[in-house]
Amino acid sequence: MSTIVLGTLSSLYRSALSLYPEPLRREREELGRLFDDLLERQRRRSPLAATWFALRSLADVILVGLPARVLEALGLRGASGRDPGGRRDPQRSDRWLQSLLQDLGYAHRHFQRRPLVALASIGSLALGIAATTAIFSLFDALVLRPVAVAHPDRLVGMVSLRENGTNSTFPYPDFQVVRPAVADALDLVAYSNRPTTVRLGDGPEAASERLYVALVSAGYFTALEVDATLGRVFDQQTVADGSYLAVASHSFWSGRLSGEPAAIGRTFVVNDQPVTLIGVAPPGFRGLHGDVEPALYLPLSHQPVASAELLEAHTTSWLFWAGVLEPGASRAEAEARLEAVTMAHWQEIGRDFELGIELQHTPTGFPLPLRDYRPFVQLSMAVVVLVLLVACANVASLLLASGASRMREIGARQCLGAGRGRLVRQLLTESLLLGLVAGAAGVTLALLLVRALVGREPLASQLGGLEVGIDARVLGVALALTLAVSILFGLAPALQLLRRNAAAALRGAGGSAEHGRLLGQRALVVAQIALSFATLVLAALFAVSLRELQAIDPGIERAPVLMASIDLEAAGYEGERVGPFFAALLENVSAIPGVESAALTRSRPVSPAGSRMGYEVPGYVAGPDEDMELDTNVVSQDYFLTLGIELEEGRTFEPLDAAPGTTPVAVVNRIFAERFLSGRNPVGRTITSGMFMLIEGSPEVRVIGVVADGKYRSLREEPRPMVYLPHERVAAQLGDRMTLLVRTAGDPLAVHEEVRAAVHSVDPRVPPYSVITLEEQLERAVANERLTTALLGALAAFAVLLAGVGLFALLTYWTRLRRPEIGIRVALGARPGEVVRGVVSFTLALVAAGCVAGVALAMPLARVLEAQLYSIQPTNPAVYVAGAFLLLAIGALAGALPSHQTARVDPVKVLRQD
Amino acid sequence: MRARRELPKLKPVELLVLAELDRQDQHGYGIVQAIERHTEGAVSLVPGNLYRVLHRLIDRGLIAEVDRPAAEPSEDQRRRYYRITETGREEVAREIQRVESLASLARGVGSAS
Fold first, then answer.
1. How distant is the Cα of A6 from the closest Cα of chain B, in angstroms?
2. Under DSSP, is residue A95 helix (H, G, I), strand (E, B) or coil?
3. Residue pLDDT, tens place only, A464-504
4. Across the interface, which of A27, A38, A93 has its CB nearest the CB of B51?
5. What is the pLDDT of residues A823-847, one digit of tens each?
6. Which of A650, A721, A717 is CA-nearest to residue A689?
7. Whole-structure pTM value
8. Which residues pair with A566 in a beta bridge?
9. Interface contact flag, B46 A60, Cβ < 8 Å
10. Concatenated DSSP letters for A853-908?
11. Is the ipTM of this complex over 0.85?
């Protein structure tokens, strides 16, 4: 063992020594010297012995020192064990430790005698803390955690104001004009994430991959003050030099590039253009755009991804703008400056629909990451805090109930001279002990929960590599939570104690304090029921909504279909080369054993992305505000067969429809036919589109068939008109980015490799991407709702269980208190049934009160969530009534059990006891 | 008898420390070494532990801090020395006697059966 290690251990030990309480702290010199001598002695034996000795010594400091310092900080013991004269006060020196140990001993014995109370308390708290911690870690990652730039507090994003709302993307030429003009207030950057095909090498053997590439302005890294962990980042100067450069994200480098330092200098091919990797971004930096983590950052003025036309287009808005405020510049100043410059420029070029500019503080990135998940996470956070409150109320109520007998013990100690402060401290020690055990269990559970949540769809793909975990921030929150709830639920019995006198406690019965306690406990139970009722109602509303969503007919068969996307534009295909590629591909795929049919579609079924085209229908007069841009899908011949879409009239596409010179044809859906072609047979009618003017020289398209309506963008949508165009005819213009649909006899994933091979055999440079089954695709459409329902359901079940336990504890205690009275009534001839009825009706009254309070809590919450519900009103009475019935049934059960027991006791015995 | 019973019993570690100081005045390092030697490594004290024991024994008047002996090698001059008091000596004797009589009692019980 080297002297360096010994020196480090020695200084570590010495610095830890200040943890020791007085009087040990005063012996620091001696302790340090003794440690050095003994460590040296152990070292001569073996390094292992020395390590073991050092560990034991440190553990001693921490285990003895930390609790003592915590107590000191809480003011529960003086900082010094000596009196001012400097002499040691033997009475005092060890008293803190003794009394702490004594308290822990009492607590331990107390809970040992009541393992059920201890287990129920620890269990409910642990679950409450676990759920809160897990959801908080998500909340932190998605909503709170600032982006990893040098000054997230000075980061601003910008939107322009338009008549119909705001807009957050802008053309590139505007950026070039505005950036230098506002430089004294704001360092402006522009960026956009694009899925792009990248070949990971410049040799012919190199594999192609579909990656997210961030196109960023040259000064992006300099403005954000993000430096490379390896190699370097690009800046204005290096970009101006003109060679094609890329910076890899840390996760792409450590994953796909195996974390090799030698990766710097490697060449990738992006859209046929070689670029050189010059650096790796720091871990945790995911760019400003929160939705996906890009694999590569490329200077946007270099053209492999953004075409020259795109860079020059004054009318195409595609770049997000963000900026870092110069030190000292306020947001308002920067906004005024930016608005003046930008609006003047826009006026000059006639971009007159922009009404103004707004700067938004965006420390968590811009545009906001995972916008869809924020309401989910916020809702979860709110509900989970409700549940944690239920758990606290539950433990407080359990402790109060178990305290009935406890009060005698405490009364005895009070009579023997224990001060109130001492007793309160003991009760708080107990609740802290419970809380810490529960906190430790809760954090462990939370770890598992986070792993389960984050590793599962839909979150896994949506989080896109965003790190969610139990880090120091989350642990800090968990610890604070634990301490807060411990004090919260420990306070109830402690306050109780302060209010009563010892003699009454010794008698252990009756008195106003007893009633006060009962009242407090009742209030706790009513609150618990109200909170769990609210959770239950929310969960039920989402469950009904999910069921309704799942019952929606998407207009296609839920058949075994594999889907794989193919982007020929990215692979450099143009015009006439596109059609033959797909024809060859379909032929190859159809030949795979087990494949029933194969087809192409431009839009995936039930997917938010889709194309639209403008149409006119001769004979149909569109309203003044009617949007005649309609959903348009480009599909191959066997599309309707592959997805099982029902043909209602006419025919679907045939090979002859692709023949040049013939009139272009289209298939429309039912609602299209009803809305635009009503009155006459839709088949054979002609519609027109400007797009066909461009493609064919004539705008006319003939309708050859009508198919059933379907759900195209989301399950919730109202029926929308759809026009299908034959891929075989428009491949060159509209058909370069398609999804292959492969319908199989058995498990579609079984042909996954063969499909990949089929694509590879047509062109090895084209990678199929987003390969999933139709089932998964449909599942994604309800993934958000499913996740919310599952989470709310679990939380509601937990809250109801807690409320049940709380109620049971209260009633056990209450019937015990009333045993003499019940004894007298039984002696006077009351039947056990009547006694039980009495208790049960008391219970039902409590539950009913809880439900009424719960309705008042649930209704406004449900209204807030109305937009997320499908086909059910947030105030649906059936849901509320069912929730109330469930809780009443649980209440009746919780009341019947203890009262049944009490009613059967021998009245003589009961009366004699008191 | 009654008065003696009220004194808290010595813990094994305390007895070991007292027994070593009964032999000679000693410093902390020496005490740890001696105890390790006598117990063949079974008891190995860490600094904090030793000083808690020393403080307890001082509080109970069983040992006291003393000036270091002039004759000690200079390296040991910086160490603090401890000496057993009369009460301490009595306590060691009494404790050893108690443990021995307990042991012989146990042996008697063992052989009787």
1. 16
2. helix
3. 566 677 777 777 877 787 788 777 777 666 666 666 655 55
4. A27
5. 888 888 888 788 888 888 888 998 9
6. A721
7. 0.62
8. A738
9. yes
10. HHHHHHHHHHHHTGGG--SS-TT-HHHHHHHHHHHHHHHHHHHHHHHHHHHTS-HH
11. yes
